[in-house]
Amino acid sequence: MSIVYLLFDLSIVIAVVWLKLNHRLKLILLMFFALVVDAYIRFSFGRYFTAFDESYYLYLSSNRYFYLGWPFSGFVLPYLLGRISSFFSIPPFQTVLLVSVVLFILYVPAVFWFYKKLGLSTDLALLSVLVLFLSSYYIWAGIEVRPQQVGVLIGILLMAYYLGSLDEFTPRRAAVLLILFIALAFSHILSFFLFSTVLVSYTIWTFLSKRIPEGTGKRYYLVVSFSIFASLLLILWFPPYKRMVEAMVWIIENNKFFSTFAIITKHFRVVVIVIYFLLVVFLWLLISKLVRWHDRITTIWHLVETLVDRFFIPLFALIVIAWGGALYLQFTLNAQAYSAVYRDSPVIFFFFQLGNVFFGILFMYSLLRRIKCRKFSTPDVMAVLWMILGGVLLIFSLMMRISSIQGWRFNNWMIRALQYFPMFGAPLVADALVEDLNALYTKVRQRTRKWQAVSLVLLLVVLIFVSTLNVARPPEFYAYDAIITDEFLDVADHYLESGGLLALRNYSDLRGFVATNFFRAYSKGARFVEWRTSYRYLIFSSDNFRIYTSGYLSATFSYIRNYTSFILKTSGDSSVDQRAELEYSLELLGSIYSVSLANNLECNDILDSRVPVILVGAFSNECTKYLMELGSLPVIIDSASVFTPVQTYTSPHASKKWWDVNRGYFAIQIIQTPEGSPVLVIEGTGVDSTVAGLWYFVNNIYPNLDTVEYETISYIVGEWIERDDNVWPNLKFDASDKNGFSEGDEIRILEVG
Q1: Bridging pattern class, strands 537-541 and 746-752
Q2: Secondary structure letter of residue 697 according to DSSP
Q3: Beta-strand (E) ranges in 384-436?
Q4: pTM as predicted
Q5: Are 690 and 618 in contact, with CB atoms under 8 Å apart?
Q6: What does the buried/exposed string (b/e) look like for 315-326 if buried means 16 or more CB atoms within 10 Å of the residue's CB?
């Protein structure tokens, strides 16, 4: 497979660099190359490539209400993945693979359009797109399905449209810019901040260099500032971004510098808006001042050009050392992770970074050469701005405290910026290659020149191949186990059919995270246990997985239609809410059944008694918790969520007053013990919702147990919503409590199965 890919790599490079083909055909070939690169990385080496963040969004995409309980850096992607999977009935992981390849292909025409707007010729723009594949940073960020993948695409389109609008300012163009900024904020928060910073900085450069008329420049500065402000409001107050804003506060609190300013975290949203307004005003005053110094700035820049001309080699060496030092410093912040991946081998690490090294050195050489030749223009400005941004983010990385939370250290900000940089550095790299590669087009008498060009083509082929391998991480060289195999897919199919408890053998933290997200994407209530577990039944086993079951079987509500007496166990009576739950359980269930309270008995005695059982309550009812831990219940409720076989619902949070809750979820479900006795479980996210579930069972389910409907239903998930401002007496835990269950409240059935 690798030999075939290498030959295909060679053919694409020759076609783009060597052959005189129509530029549209070359663009199509590059799009097809993107498809092949993605497929080669994903499907070669006996497994499916995936990554830490990608597995997280795989899980989120399968949760319709992901935005209620989980932090994420962009809304569009998980929402889009979920809708595609649902609408086309494509399994979650296959949806991720599809979106990966489609977006990576779309990168090619989007980036080509951006390069044309930068002022590159068609041939140079095509070569720049090809050069991108030299960098593993570009390939990895382009194929990994996470919000940044969409954010980079929208950001490139935004910048291309902005550059194309500089010649003529119209209200329509301003409106489109606003829409693109908002789309970027919806797509990826970090991309929004980075692209906004670069665009504002570039706008300032157009002022100082007098590239556009002064009046137009002022209007564009105001349009860009307003667009950023509107998008910033969306990020800060858009309800689904609430948890992400909390994550931003967490990042600041764990920063060695900003954490000393408590006002930032206590009034984060207001502080951000105030700082933004002050920054806009300051930059405007600064621009107004610097514009008057245009001649002085020009003189200084000419001095820089002269210095570069005179000391080209020393400056080039100095920049290479500084750039290498910055990269080394960033890598040391996560040295443990990189060492583990590259098997603690500097040789392996350096070899697979050859594409990035070549890209970086050629970029710095080209940048200095363009300054020396006085050809410094828009592409160069863009690239330098991203370099400066990367340096700032490196400083921010150094300021981050080390967190004990796996995956939440946030000290790799420069690496994040590097994933954007290749798109802006590629034109300079391509420009440095053009002169030598032109020897392949023209009749050159010097054979040496021809062989140099041919050698350069072969070098590009090899380095693109190496960078592709760097992303693919073949197991022969890398200790990287965040992968998904056919075994995952087979186990997922079996698990969907039988349920149970999953055990994964010998998994690292990274592999465990990926596996957990994968199986939860396929089954919301997936439960994981240790490999060596003494459950009653082992129903599936493979090399790396086992599925256990507790022996409890599913049942339908019709199973209890002929029962008139039950053993009842509630959460107890040690607190005021538990006593209320107990009293209403006896009152409501006692109106239709003969119930015997068994709160003083152990769970094993109750469940093994061969007598019908009703369990009420979720968090404190030991028997309900026991059944949930065994994976015996189709619906699982914990302190944060309600997991069903097809959906996840995030539990509402009370205010500082624990009893002040005006909505909640409940689940009513039935199973049978290995001996065939029914177990009816009624549980809620709080005492009010639990009582709402009791009331619904007594008044709506019990009278209809003889109907055909309940012959196929084994669980019901409902939502209780406060409507009448009345509270049943024993549920009124404070004199001012107006939120609590009563018969006039609304009960909505969300799911049955």
Answers
A1: unpaired
A2: I
A3: none
A4: 0.80
A5: yes
A6: bbeebeeebeeb
In b/e form, how buried is each residue of 120-133, taking b as 16+ CB within 10 angstroms? Answer: beebbbbbbbbbbb
**Residue 451: Cβ within 10 Å count:** 11
Cα–Cα distances (Å) from 199 to 116, 129, 152, in that order, read 17, 22, 14
Question: pLDDT digits over 694-709, tens only?
Answer: 889 989 998 888 888 8
**603's tokens:** 């769970």
Please check whether residue 126 is in contact with residue 23, taking contact to mean a CB–CB distance below 8 angstroms: yes
619: left (phi over 0), alpha (psi -120 to 50) or beta: alpha
Tell me the C-alpha to C-alpha distance, in Å, between residue 37 and each of 48, 102, 372, 467.
13, 12, 37, 10
The residue length of the chain stands at 753
Q: What is the DSSP letter of 129?
A: H
Structural tokens at position 216 = 């137009």
- Nearest 5 degrees, angle CA 256-CA 259-CA 260? 100
| Six-digit token string for 380 | 């160069």
DSSP 583-635: HHHHHHHHTTSEEEE-TTS-HHHHHTSSS-EEEE-SSS-HHHHHHHHTT--SS
At 65, phi and psi to the nearest 5?
Answer: -110, 40
> What is the model's pLDDT at position 39?
93
Q: Which helix (H) or strand (E) holds 511?
A: helix 509-522
DSSP 654: P
Query: What 8-state DSSP symbol labels residue 267?
Result: T
Tokens of 521: 């994407």
Q: What does each C-alpha distance from 573 to 320, 597, 600, 607 come to in angstroms?
A: 71, 12, 11, 21
Residue 107, burial from CB neighbour count under 10 angstroms (0-12, 13-18, 19+): buried
The whole-angstrom distance between residue 213's C-alpha and the CA centroid of its chain comes to 41
In 238-293, alpha helices (H): 242-253, 262-266, 268-292
* Inter-residue contact 510 to 469 (CB < 8 Å): no
pLDDT tens digits along 258-310 = 655 666 667 788 888 998 999 989 988 888 888 778 778 778 878 887 888 88
Q: What is the DSSP letter of 255?
A: B
Q: Calculate the alpha carbon distances from 638 to 550, 665, 743 in Å.
A: 20, 11, 26
